[in-house]
């Protein structure tokens, strides 16, 4: 019976119920989108890093867990190539082209040898200086094909081929060309190393650190991939924390206002329930149940909206952000929404529970 | 043999504080109501009728005096005890019907049972009472689809669903036309006669008061001798 009353109360004010649920849903969407984008970007980078086929990555000192920022001298490449158990070593240069996009310079033959199957779906490799190849994802999002033109660094680049995605980068040009254009001649962002026996990875890393690379970040690809999680990126983790806090505050305010209005509007009904013998706990339970229903509906709306944001991101900013759908966060986002909502309902609920029955019955 | 009173009030006083001013709403009321009695309480506005009604219904505690309702000492009761009194011992009928607008007539009645701790559908005996009250065919409608008279009859059914010892009716015909007033008053008298239901009814209307076995008149917080 109490559930019937809760449902009827929510149905009685459908617009308010819907708006409250949507507002809670927006809060859930904020969380799911942020986590989804973080994970989508990291997963994408993981997949592309895995596609390199290397066992070890060497990066400049002090570089971040993700992103290939900072450059170093390419002279260590021949040094690395001579080290025991090193089968292949190839350097890359990454130059940002926008807040979320970059172009990568590769030594194509060396990279092809290391990663094995750098397969072209359309067209073929770069032959001249002003040419690039793009991966399938980027080509689809930007509607590129061999012969298309890309405008990067104030110059036009002809697309010669579209390669299967999952190979380190989205836009690739020869290393020497990128070094020259970006005034980074002789500089690299990272060196990928493939060993003759992957089981010796840790041993080789120790050797490299002993033999002159002690200041460099020399880590296994396995370790790099495991670092690619939200928890290992303090800024992102903090940002997610801020968004979750904002979500709780938004949920709190929305439900507070909604329930406060509901309590004022239903003052007389609360008086009726009390006259019938409803305890303060019964009155509070009605409002908390209503809030729980709102939070559940809001969570479902938020989950639905997260698919919409994914579509919007793919449509409006193609080839940049990647949003993953994160079902494991659905209950977490729902719990956060519920917590914020229950906090918001608590004061109006207590006000209702403490309502004087006689005053409430006299309320018009 | 005379039964012991179901309502026994001695020296009842109630003082409200409004801002910095104490308002003496009841100034020493003495009253006995026997089981099965139908008592009308009449008097002008501000005479203390509603305050007496609220105290007898456990909606507000008395300031002093003694009040016994079906053997329960109201002065010794906690808030929780008074809540239980409203669930089990006293049923209310209000001038403005006070049905929950979001629930159907049936649900309005059933929620009163639910609050008192009884669940499940209404029993056959009560269904007969709904027929007696003339609302059996309207029981699944929401209050907005019912006339004033129908709403008040639903309110009476709701007040009686837990078989309370006392039915307190506050101006039950105050919002009704003459025809519906007579119907509701007739029903109250019928319930009193058939079920021996004790009824205390506040009214301004002398014709309505005449339906009771006796009329108590209040003025300035006291019962007129």
Describe this structure in words.
The complex is a heterodimer of chains A (364) and B (225). Chain A has 13 helices and twelve strands. Chain A has 364 residues and is an alpha+beta fold. In chain A, helix 2 runs antiparallel to helix 12 and helix 11 packs antiparallel against helix 12 (330-354). The longest helix of chain A is centred in the first third of the chain and has 37 residues, at 14-50. The radius of gyration of chain A is 29 Å and the shape is elongated. The mean pLDDT of chain A is 85. Chain B has 225 residues and is α/β, with parallel strands linked by helices. Chain B is built from seven helices and ten strands. The interface between A and B is medium-sized, with 23 and 28 residues.
Please give the structural blueprint.
The complex is a heterodimer of chains A (364) and B (225).
Chain A: H1 2-12, H2 14-50, E1 56-59, E2 72-73, H3 76-81, E3 86-96, E4 102-106, H4 108-115, E5 120-123, E6 131-135, H5 136-142, E7 149-152, E8 155-163, E9 171-174, H6 175-181, E10 187-188, E11 190-195, H7 201-210, E12 217-220, H8 221-227, H9 234-265, H10 267-275, H11 280-316, H12 330-354, H13 357-362
Parallel strand pairs in A: 4-9, 6-8
Antiparallel strand pairs in A: 1-11, 1-12, 2-10, 3-4, 3-11, 5-8, 6-9, 7-8
Helix pairs in contact in A: 1-11, 2-9, 2-11, 2-12, 9-12, 11-12
Chain B: E1 7-18, E2 21-33, E3 38-42, H1 49-56, E4 64-69, E5 72-73, H2 79-88, E6 90-93, H3 105-115, H4 124-133, H5 148-160, E7 166-170, H6 178-195, E8 198-203, H7 206-209, E9 214-219, E10 222-223
Label this structure with key terms.
heterodimer; A: 364 residues; alpha+beta; 10-stranded mixed beta sheet; 13 helices; 55% helix; elongated; B: 225 residues; alpha/beta; 6-stranded mixed beta sheet; 4-stranded antiparallel beta sheet; 7 helices
